[in-house]
Amino acid sequence: MRLLVLWLVSAAAACAAAQEPPIPAQALRSGLSFAGADVRAMQADDAENPGFLWVTHGEALWQSGCASCHGDARTSMRGVAARYPAYDEAAKSVLDLAARIERCRTERAHAAPLARESEDLLALETYVALQSRGMPGNVSIDGPARASFERGQAFYHRRHGQMNLACTQCHDQNYGKRLYAETISQGHGNAFPAYRLEWQSLGSLQRRIRACLFGVRAQMPPPGAPELTDVELYLAWRAKGLPLEAPGVRR
Amino acid sequence: MDARIVVPPKVARNEPFEVRVQIRHPMETGYRTDDNGKSIPRNVIRTFTCRYDGELVFAAQLSSGIAANPYLRYFVTARASGELVFEWVDDAGVRGSERAAVTVA
Predict the structure, then answer these.
(1) Is the pLDDT of residue A135 over 80?
(2) Which of A35, A223, B51, B82 is the most buried (most CB within 10 A)?
């Protein structure tokens, strides 16, 4: 009997331990620290960071629409991006920041819908995300967000594609090592939407996840697919405490 | 076409100061094809000019070798306060322009 109790206690402890992120908080490293000096310099100077072209555009869109309800984004949107993806009561599902903005635009403001990865939606998302720059990510995985988090966690640990690789094999077990000319990062989304030199454009975290899935020759869920939002939530929880950098610059 | 212009808030007389320009533009090379194999026509910014109170102080001819969202950085010397006028035109004939005031301290 005592053995059984001991077993139960240790099983409970193992369950609690499973809820610790794979990389402890003090070992979290932003993708920026894996990037070269030129990329770091580009992100460090707002005048050189091409992501700010989207900020300028997003600010104009904000002023012409969102501002009539939400006022000055610098105060009303401060810290918002750090909480996303989050469960939305009205949508009855977890939404990432782009989906939340789009919902507000179409449901409340009755504006014409914008496609995922469209320049306007990216610009708005970037402008809103910028207001939380430097703040630590702080998503909630409790309550109704739990199921989405668990799906995202399972996706992250499942092997994908012809290369038969799981996200965790590169980004938890082998970060810092080389993959051809690239240094494998810890795979955090804290700089997104980010300007990627490879894309010669700004793109969302979903686009980046899709690019990774393409790399391991797996099927890519379409932009806006719930699986991608689940992974975004898991990634945000995994990087909890890491300061937001959007709009970041990546290779 | 969005652009971002950065000039120092105050510049010294007859001292060169840095002008930084970034233009949001795809700079489509003309060498790529779309998903159906059709060639995508070239669309790059062809000419860029910068005038200071009407006088041409900097000009550039860009080509398909320049990456998207071109970033230009050059120096200008001011004898008096005035206005920089930036103008550019791409292959599609779309024109863009931007202005920046320069204050000589």
Answers:
(1) yes
(2) A35
Number of Cα atoms under 13 Å in the Cβ half of residue B80? 2
A177 in any annotated domain: yes
Using CA coordinates, name the residue in chain A closest to B8: A47
Cross-strand bridge partners of residue B5: B21
Q: Domain B3-29+42-102: what homologous superfamily? A: Immunoglobulins (2.60.40.10)
Q: What is the mean pLDDT of residues A39-65?
A: 95
CB of B69 within 8 Å of any CB in chain A? yes
Domain limits, chain B: 3-29+42-102
**Nearest Cβ partner for B20 among A47, A54, A56:** A47
Q: What residues contact A116, with CB distance under 8 A and at least 6 apart?
A: A98, A204, A206, A223, A224
The mean pLDDT of chain B is 94
Domain that holds residue A38: 28-250
CATH number of the domain bearing residue A43: 1.10.760.10
